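> forwarded from #structure-qc
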């Protein structure tokens, strides 16, 4: 993380489920699902002639039983489309946690929405997420992240969209994503330089469980915080892959304890179980233990019976 960027939020983004706003039955299902966040989609999963109906559905849904313990994100149509401004009015009325902008090409796409929210006196807690899913979006990822973090904007998160990116570039959908890795890693550099979170793209073949598991592991290894999902059956695997495992938590706790020991006072490097440990590992360990705590608190809340 760069020196002058704000601290990255530690909200959990392991499983970010997209739900077409046109599908009332799927919207209602979200109450019972164990995903960390829900994207209410007004964009590509809603046919052009159904956009108005989808907005009405969201009004109904948001005025009903509150969706507790899940971050709420509304994906709008681009401001340049015929629907973007009406979608933004809805965002201002419903006040989700974040608005997700599709096909972000350049910093100006984020700043335009940031300005609209500021003009409407939207609270600072209403944040912006950006889909990075075009060739220009990938090329400009660092500039978008920088502008979104340093010019008073509300940008918190990038979501990679590989369906659009493959369509625009001609890269074939192959297992292992060999030719996409440089772009996926460029997004990771951009988010880490400016303190955002990064969510990996959807995996379309939701019945291919093993291939989905492999892609979650791949995304985790590249440094992604979570995965955008299209189907409830993908939630459990995403929650598992993007959570620290027991061994990693134990090791992190050992590192924290070792640096807390009086014998480590004033030392930047110590030995633990035959390995060199630096203070930078302590920072990593604290962040991992913090994440594990958030997950465990979340599970406790989930288990509580509804009053
Ligand atoms: N969110 C919430 N519930 C969902 C869901 C989702 N994304 N996808 C499916 N479900 C529900 C269905 O409503 C169904 O509920 P029911 O049994 O009470 O009727 C149940 O899960 C099983 O669904 P299934 O029959 O396996 O899938 P489907 O054929 O109904 O739908 C998709 C498959 C892909 C069309 C659907 O999952 C979907 O629309 N996903 C999101 C697509 C999207 O958001 N795209 C834009 C981002 S790329
Ligand atoms: Mg897209």
């Amino acid at each position: 993380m760069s020196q002058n960027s704000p601290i990255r939020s530690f909200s959990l983004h392991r499983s970010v489920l997209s739900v077409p706003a046109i599908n009332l039955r799927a919207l209602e299902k979200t109450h019972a699902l164990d995903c960390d966040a829900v994207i209410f989609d007004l964009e590509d999963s809603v046919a052009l002639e159904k956009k108005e109906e989808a907005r009405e559905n969201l009004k109904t849904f948001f005025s009903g039983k509150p969706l507790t313990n899940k971050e709420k994100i509304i994906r709008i149509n681009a401001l340049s489309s015929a629907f973007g401004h009406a979608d933004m009015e809805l965002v201002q009325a419903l006040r989700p946690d974040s608005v997700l902008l599709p096909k972000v090409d350049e910093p100006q796409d984020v700043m335009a929405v940031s300005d609209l929210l500021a003009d409407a006196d939207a609270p600072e807690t209403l944040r912006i997420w950006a889909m990075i899913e075009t060739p220009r979006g990938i090329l400009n990822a660092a500039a978008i992240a920088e502008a979104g973090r340093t010019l008073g904007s509300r940008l918190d998160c990038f979501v990679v969209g590989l369906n659009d990116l493959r369509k625009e570039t001609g890269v074939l959908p192959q297992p292992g994503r060999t030719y996409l890795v440089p772009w996926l890693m460029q997004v990771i550099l951009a988010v880490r330089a400016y303190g955002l979170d990064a969510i990996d793209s959807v995996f379309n073949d939701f019945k291919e469980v093993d291939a989905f598991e492999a892609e979650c592991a791949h995304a985790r290894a590249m440094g992604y915080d979570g995965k955008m999902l299209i189907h409830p059956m993908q939630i459990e695997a995403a929650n598992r892959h993007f959570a620290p495992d027991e061994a990693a938590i134990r090791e992190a706790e050992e590192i924290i304890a070792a640096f807390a020991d009086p014998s480590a006072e004033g030392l930047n490097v110590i030995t633990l179980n035959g390995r060199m440990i630096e203070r930078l590992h302590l920072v990593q360990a604290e962040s991992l233990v913090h994440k594990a705590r958030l997950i465990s608190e979340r599970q406790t809340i989930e288990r509580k019976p509804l009053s």
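QC bot note: The chain has two domains: 15-241, 246-297. Residues 44, 102, 131, 133, 161, 163-164 surround magnesium ion (ligand 2) (CB under 6 Å).
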